[in-house]
Amino acid sequence: MGKTLKEKLKELPLERQEKIQNRTNELIALEMTRQELRQKRKVTQKQIAECLRIDQGNVSRIEQRTDLMLSTLRKYIVAMGGDLQIVAVFPDSDPITLIGFSEETSET
């Protein structure tokens, strides 16, 4: 029977195990929910609501939704002082930043 990942990791030198754990921690820290991101940026739901000209309850709903329009997400990120970028990641190439999603277009 094959070895588990944990078993394989235990076979590595301690220094290598520590590097892997540190990188794992870095990657985990980069993944956040919208609410965690807002809290880390020290922005309140009320501040987001005022910027978006909606009520605080709608901000809460934005943070809880699993299916969100990109335009809504972009406005939410901009309200915190950020910019939304969409990146496509493939196993056989470098990440590719997609254009045409970050900027609000005015169609008149």
UniProtKB/TrEMBL annotation:
It holds the Pfam family HTH_37. Residues 20-47 form a coiled coil. Residues 35-87 form the HTH cro/C1-type domain. SUPFAM superfamilies: lambda repressor-like DNA-binding domains (SSF47413). PROSITE patterns: HTH_CROC1. Keywords: Coiled coil. CDD domains: HTH_XRE. This is Helix-turn-helix domain-containing protein. It comes from Plectonema radiosum NIES-515.
